[in-house]
Amino acid sequence: AQSVTQLDSQVPVFEEAPVELRCNYSSSVSVYLFWYVQYPNQGLQLLLKYLSGSTLVKGINGFEAEFNKSQTSFHLRKPSVHISDTAEYFCAVSYTGGFKTIFGAGTRLFVKA
Amino acid sequence: EAQVTQNPRYLITVTGKKLTVTCSQNMNHEYMSWYRQDPGLGLRQIYYSMNVEVTDKGDVPEGYKVSRKEKRNFPLILESPSPNQTSLYFCASRREGSYNEQFFGPGTRLTVL
């Protein structure tokens, strides 16, 4: 079965430190990969997506992610986080020609002063 | 403003009392979907619709119904709610094509007593 695994349920980090949120997926077919962010009491919004081409994808708010086909990973990174980055982050996968999007369980990022 | 709206935002009800959560989008999107979000489980798809009068089950459809009579609306119906349907519900829409991002509503927090 297709699945998405976010390896950390919670990540605490100090302000201005770098952060990496890890995501692995299971697939033997072509995939599209997404990271969404959910701020408290809000719906999800897109941070970035990988469709094809360059494996390094840049998104909003200084985030970037790297697609690694051999490792089936799509880790999210930011070189210096702000308090305002405190939120829950979801990795998601959809498949070429498919209708479903499969979401990971989410990673809560806590940025401390 | 392009958006997905849901009503109500908060609802407390009792077991067995039928309820409907409405969802509407103003972006002329073909695809709409309902998810439930539970702690540690991420988002799980309940039902989706590829276009008017075309719907299909997601991963957790038991206890839910949907309809798509108009392109903009995709209501979620709980005919006989039970406490295990207490959750945070999100409606989402996107253009045709699984490579397109989804746009999410603000969420409906449902409590079934």
Fold blueprint:
The complex is a heterodimer of chains A (about 110) and B (about 110).
Chain A: E1 3-6, E2 10-14, E3 19-21, E4 23-26, E5 31-38, E6 44-50, E7 56-58, E8 64-68, E9 73-78, E10 87-95, E11 101-103, E12 107-112
Chain B: E1 4-7, E2 10-13, E3 19-25, E4 31-38, E5 42-51, E6 54-57, E7 65-66, E8 76-78, E9 87-94, E10 103-104, E11 108-112
Parallel strand pairs in B: 2-11
Antiparallel strand pairs in B: 1-3, 3-8, 4-5, 4-9, 5-6, 7-8, 9-10, 9-11
- The N- and C-terminal alpha carbons of chain B lie at a distance of 36 Å
Please work out how many helical segments of chain B DSSP would assign: 0
- Cα radius of gyration of chain B in angstroms: 13 Å
Instruction: Work out the largest interface and the residue count of each chain.
Output: A-B, 27 and 25 residues
Model description:
Chain A has 113 residues and is mostly beta strands. Chain A contains no helices and 12 strands. In chain A, strands 2, 5, 6, 10, 11 and 12 form a 6-stranded mixed beta sheet that branches. A 4-stranded antiparallel beta sheet of chain A has the order 3-9-8-7, with no helix packed on it. In chain A, strands 1-4 form a two-stranded antiparallel sheet. In chain A, 35% of the residues are buried. The mean pLDDT of chain A is 92. With 113 residues, chain B is an all-beta fold. In chain B, the strands form 2 sheets. In chain B, strands 2, 4, 5, 6, 9, 10 and 11 form a 7-stranded mixed beta sheet that branches. The interface between A and B is medium-sized, with 27 and 25 residues.
Name the descriptors.
heterodimer, A: 113 residues, mainly beta, 6-stranded mixed β-sheet, 4-stranded antiparallel β-sheet, globular, B: 113 residues
Quick recap of the structure?
The complex is a heterodimer of chains A (113) and B (113). With 113 residues, chain A is an all-beta fold. In chain A, 0% of the residues lie in helices and 56% in strands.
